[in-house]
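Lecture notes, continued. The same structure-token format from the folding unit now serves as the input rather than the output. Read the line below as a description of shape only.
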């Protein structure tokens, strides 16, 4: 049985990766931040009674900014594979919190790579490392489509921090002969996507509008174009990277991009609604610098990893719209029964 160690296990990708690794027979250890409310919703269906002897999923309190805790965990767990998915992953928020973002995304990566280097020495075995890099590193794109060789031009504090993590991972590979891979993943979504990212914000709002729970959807730049895929496919690519003979960098993308406006149309058409009647522009959602278009070329991932996306953006939009219509129906039932659901109307970005 292999053992995996995951940061960011409570996030969208962490939950899909955990699901897939448990299905492959892995023992999975995840780092969870202490919060005043429960933050393990996406894992509840996987988390067995921790009082049972040796459950395959084990959660540990920790934080990427706490290097000594990470080193202690890696030393005691001695994992075969480490997946660094933890991040302040919201681009707009990174303009408000550039230092926090850099501490988690850039220095957090440094903390974890050091912990893995130390853990390899003390365990006397190789630990394979996956770094969650991002298409946001391409920013103001220098060529279309973007490949593993396209120069970076990040346009946000988040993008800059991801570039640091990317190069540091390569530096550890070259300096210490570590098996460290960089996955340059383009946008990937799912029904588990955080509700402040644009696709989920759209599918949540459209479901609520359909059932009379919300009147308008306020968005920012509708002209930005993204290469959107399904998160379940993308975590499979992460795992495949760590099963190769040699570590490398890989672009993971669908090779097709559409504007935010078109994603809105796909979702509202699913509900039989005209998006023009419901969508308003709110400049609060504009970014100081925008990434206008991202389009990935996943040729290397196809050739070397045998990886292919299984889900088109049209299928993804329907998958998310169907899921969020069910959530809206549950909310409608509560409202009709006279319950106060104001806590469901969350602040968004
Ligand atoms: P996500 O849903 O926002 O999850 C982020 C995870 O990081 C959460 O588990 C979060 O914990 C954790 N985290 C935040 N701050 C942390 C800290 N200080 N220490 C430890 N953990 C911390 O992100 P995702 O969509 O799953 O993305 C996974 C990774 O891929 C991220 O590194 C992201 O930047 C990168 N990425 C994502 C995409 C995409 O389109 N989804 C594309 C390219 C790259 P809480 O639950 O406690 O907040
Ligand atoms: O959904 P988004 O917030 O994702 P963004 O900025 O592309 O970042 C995501 O993908 C990156 C990979 O390229 C990841 F590294 C990162 O962690 C994250 O997962 O915004 C997508 C586009 C942007 O151009 C934004 O300006 O949608 C535009 N947009 C328009 N209105 C909006 C909104 N974005 C958000 N979040 N909220 C809006 O109301």
């Amino acid at each position: 049985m292999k053992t995996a160690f995951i940061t960011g296990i409570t996030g969208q990708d962490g939950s899909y990766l955990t699901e897939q690794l448990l299905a492959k027979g892995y023992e999975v250890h995840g780092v969870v931040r202490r919060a005043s409310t429960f933050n393990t919703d996406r894992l509840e269906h996987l988390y067995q009674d921790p009082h049972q002897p040796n459950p395959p999923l084990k959660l540990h309190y920790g934080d990427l900014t706490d290097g000594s805790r990470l080193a202690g965990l890696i030393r005691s767990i001695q994992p075969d594979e480490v997946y660094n998915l933890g991040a302040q992953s919201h681009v707009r928020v990174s303009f408000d919190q550039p230092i926090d973002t850099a501490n988690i995304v850039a220095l957090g990566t440094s903390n974890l790579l050091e912990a893995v280097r130390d853990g390899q020495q003390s365990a006397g075995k190789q630990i394979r490392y996956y770094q969650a890099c991002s298409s946001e590193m391409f920013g103001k794109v220098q060529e279309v489509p973007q490949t593993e060789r396209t120069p970076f031009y990040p346009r946000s504090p988040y993008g800059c921090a991801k570039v640091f993590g990317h190069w540091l991972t390569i530096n550890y590979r070259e300096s210490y002969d570590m098996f460290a891979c960089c996955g340059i993943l383009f946008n990937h979504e799912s029904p588990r996507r955080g509700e402040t990212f644009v696709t989920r914000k759209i599918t949540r709002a459209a479901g609520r509008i359909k059932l009379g729970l919300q009147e308008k959807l306020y968005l920012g730049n509708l002209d930005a174009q993204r290469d959107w895929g399904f998160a379940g496919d993308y975590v499979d690519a992460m795992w495949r990277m760590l099963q190769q003979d040699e570590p490398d960098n890989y672009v993971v993308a669908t090779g097709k991009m559409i504007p935010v406006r078109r994603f809105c149309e796909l979702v509202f058409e699913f509900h039989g609604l005209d998006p023009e009647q419901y969508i308003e522009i709110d400049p609060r959602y504009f970014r100081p610098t925008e990434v206008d278009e991202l389009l990935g070329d996943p040729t290397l991932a196809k050739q070397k990893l045998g990886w292919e996306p299984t889900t088109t953006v049209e299928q993804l939009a329907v998958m998310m719209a169907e899921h969020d219509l069910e959530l809206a129906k549950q909310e409608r039932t509560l409202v009709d029964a006279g319950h106060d659901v104001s806590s469901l109307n969350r602040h968004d970005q």
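Point for the exam: Residues 89, 91-92, 134-136, 186-187, 196-198, 201, 219-221, 224, 226, 260, 285, 287, 290-291, 294, 349 surround G4F (ligand 2) (CB under 6 Å).
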